[in-house]
Amino acid sequence: MVFEYAPAPESASVARIRESYGQFVGGEFVRGGGEPFKSVNPADETVLAEVACADDGDVDRAVKAARTAFDKVWGPMPGAERAKYLYRIARLVQERARELAVLESIDNGKPIRESRDVDVPLVAAHFFYYAGWADKLGHAGFGTDPRPLGVAAQVIPWNFPLLMLAWKIAPALACGNTVVLKPAETTPLTALVFADICRQAELPAGVVNIVTGAGETGRALVAHEGVDKVAFTGSTEVGKEIARTVAGTRKRLTLELGGKAANIVYDDAALDQAVEGVVDGIFFNQGHVCCAGSRLLVQESIADELLARLKARMATLRVGDPLDKNTDVGAVNSAAQLERIRELAASGEAEGATRWSPPCELPGRGFWFAPTVFTGVAQSHRIAREEIFGPVLSVLTFRTPDEAVAKANNTPYGLSAGIWTEKGSRILWTAQRLRAGVVWANTFNKFDPASPFGGYKESGFGREGGRHGLEAYLDV
Amino acid sequence: MSTETLTGAAELRAFLHGLPGVDRVGAEERAARLASRSIKTTAKAAAIDLAISMVDLTTLEGADTPGKVRALCAKAARPDPDDPDVPRVAAVCVYSDLVDVAVRALDGTGIGVASVATSFPSGRAPLEAKLADTRAAVDSGAAEIDMVIDRGAFLAGDYAKVFDQIVAVKEACGPAHLKVILETGELATLDNVRRASWLAMRAGADFIKTSTGKVSPAATLPVTLVMLEAVRDFRAATGRRVGVKPAGGIRTTKDAIKYLVLVNETAGPDWLSPAWFRLGASSVLNDLLMQRRKLATGVYSGPDYFTQD
Question: Could you tell me which SUPFAM superfamilies the record lists for this protein (chain A) (predicted)?
Fold first, then answer.
């Protein structure tokens, strides 16, 4: 007998999508000076809503609103008072969790299982965690009375729209800064619902401002003279441009950029769990994860066995409707990103690697890419060096631990890595040698507000999360 | 002990300890994720009927009487008196001295009689006693024998002893199918669960089963996951297929469906048949019947609308 799961979709009406959204400046939703743009559902290419576009004037007003709020209200407010607002936001996120999760999946294309079980709970957890720090900054190890920086300009990517917002806003507010945040132009909707949550929490006007738009808006925000701190998560290319803009100014900067993480599987690993970790490492969120384990480094002696298990497991991945609770892999976020994935996958074949995908039927409309694995990949192939940001895994092999470490580190990036072995001493030996901000052992893609996250080399600098995450928003 | 047996014992130990380890955290995570699959409407209806057809209806009490066994057999043949479309269960499982009662009661229904033999549930008896227990059950007409392994010998590292006992019982079973109960609650680690699974399969088990139901914890999703991985790998390595039976602690339809999802996505849809997967759970049957009626009529009926046997 074949056991078919019936479709079990969440109702899109839970998301309460409006026809148009304004940006959030000084506690009010306002229209933008630029030409409004449309946010599209990547799973079926339907237009979800029209969103205001901020021009230079709007950015200026937002920064000024943030400055006023910083000077008059938020900066002077005792930490314990700020904490109350953060707790209130965290609880409201929990209360509106279902709405946020459904909206995130519709706007981004990610499976509801992930937005419901990972993204939104982590968003609430970050606000709870940093609420706890707000009145204890003197005990964080940055002197007895660390001061906030002022106005923070924050630009976030489309892969985890709401989670990246939480990573940026929660520590900034806890430290006493006010913020102007620009979400990605393909996924602005949950940030605007978050703005509504700020209103519901009666957060003083101007403490959180959200300007919407594309690259131009981001540029204007980053370059604005009234900004004291710039935080960016996104591509290395844009990160470099921001670094050039900010260079020579008094602005503080943290960058969290791309990655090409190695997932190292030693021959004594718990194979079934390693396969699970490899799958989670690259197919979580369709591979749109800066710390995705996109390079599998497997010890040659078990390579065949591991690959056989991996392919069998990949054949059980369910690709399709992001709102279906049984979906494992959803839609690629945009046509442009799909094109980039296709181009890089084609280069993999052209350069001599072997491409494999499980048989799977992709929906006719929308942006879809089947889970893909490349074997016979060499370090010199583009698919082993460039970040693909899609569900594409490159498999390389190694023979000794030294070779594994050398290959893992032989990349311009250094954001994350994974180690799979039953041997504790080998975990420690390897982890000490890996040049990566996060090293997971016998697990992958685990996030916790208490744990710092950030990169080496072209993966950026600065840390988000944990006690370390406070430093980026304090004058220390 | 001869040199040959010693070599065999050493090879067996080396083989079992050479199996890939099981990471408990990872296995628990995987099981939990599969348990969150959402099964509704037509999929749920199919899953409920499949689950009913996989149930081994069991009574294993010291107080069991022929009357009690006959009542259970009647329920097995017609789980829901009001609805002839409900599938029959897979088997009725009793102590070896009650096998003949069950065989007579089930005559003509096609339902198999399983018997827990081999000094159930502790397994602590001389091999001769276990073999005699087994033969008695088979002679009385049992089609399936559920044997328990000697957990003491297993935990002491005497794998060869456990292996030899399974081989001997399998021989005593003759044509009857052998289900080997690992009593995973006493094996403590998932590494042990995987080793015991392979040990039983190599010794000739037709089924591997989690628990007697007399020890807590009984069947759990992570343990069953590891056993399903073992049968999948064993088939890949040898071509021979072995069934899996979680037993004990499965009480609700929701639980039962979680196990089916686990089978579907671990060993594969091939295993979704009473021939290759069983649920050792009696109390789950009424819940399955209740949920089945709820799906058909849209309303819940109370527990009194289903028979207690």
Answer: ALDH-like
Contact B229 A272 (CB under 8 A): yes
Q: Which of residues 60-119 of B touch A (CB under 8 A)?
A: none
pLDDT tens track for A309-348: 999 999 999 999 999 999 999 999 999 999 999 999 999 9
Q: Strand B243-245 and strand B207-209: pairing?
A: parallel
- What would the two tokens of residue B294 be? 């709820």
Please give the Cα distance from B134 to B121 (Å, whole number). 14
Q: Where are the alpha helices (DSSP H) in A410-464?
A: 424-433
The sign of the CA dihedral A183, A186, A190, A193 is positive
**pTM, entire model:** 0.94
At B269-294, the pLDDT tens digits run 999 999 999 999 889 999 999 999 99
- Partner-chain contact B26 A5, CB within 8 Å: no
Window 242-301 of A, Cβ < 8 Å to B:
268-273, 276-277
Q: Do B37 and A325 touch (CB under 8 A)?
A: yes
C-alpha separations of A275 from A259, A269, A278, A426, B212 in Å: 21, 10, 5, 19, 31
C-alpha distances in angstroms, A55 versus A228, A456, B90, B142? Answer: 20, 34, 70, 82
Per the listing, tokens 């945040």 go with A181
Beta strand A474-475 with A147-148 is antiparallel
Whether residue A147 is predicted with pLDDT greater than 90 in this model: the reply is: yes
Cα(B88)–Cα(B76) distance, rounded to whole angstroms? Answer: 6
> Hey, of B19, B22, B23, which one would you mutate to test binding to chain A, going by the most A CBs within 10 A of its CB?
B23
Instruction: Choose the catalytic residue: A114, A256, A387, A471.
Output: A256
Distance CA A182, CA A214 (A): 9
Given an 8 Å threshold on Cβ–Cβ distance, is A273 in contact with B44? no
Q: Do B27 and A442 touch (CB under 8 A)?
A: no
CA atoms within 13 A on the CB side of A123: 32
Interface of A with B in 430-449 (CB under 8 A): 442-443
